[in-house]
Amino acid sequence: MKRSEDDRTLPPLNERTGPNDIGDECAKDSSYPHSDSGRIASAANPHPDRTDLAIDRTVLANERTYAAWIRTGLAGMVSGLAIEKFMVELMPTWSIHLIAELLLVLSAIAFLVAAWRYTHLSVKIAPDIRRIPDRMVLTSALLLAAMALLAAITIW
From CA 46, how far away is CA 54, in angstroms rounded? Predict the structure, then answer.
């Protein structure tokens, strides 16, 4: 594949000289703090490395997805309980129980999938990045799933 003149690549790290590049003056100073991998420590660097920013975005996306799964589970749980409570006179009893049970079981599954997905993806992310502790995620998801299943058993 032939490259056009507009296709430009970044110069090697040791040749970068711009204010947002790793090769700026503070990176050349031997007293400047560096991490084990040779990158400039993000707390001391006013211009973080692209890799650091990408990892931060990945952690935030993982947390947003976890929150979306939890919201979905909560919506299913509330909908199941609301159908059981308020739709009694509008539909046959067996269909109300079936729909409510289905929503409550699906909400418990959503809580468990949220915890599994969050912990599964957080294993792949760098361990030195601050994120929600896995124990807290698992505990909250198991508690919510238990509440949904308890509500399903109570309705039955």
Answer: 16
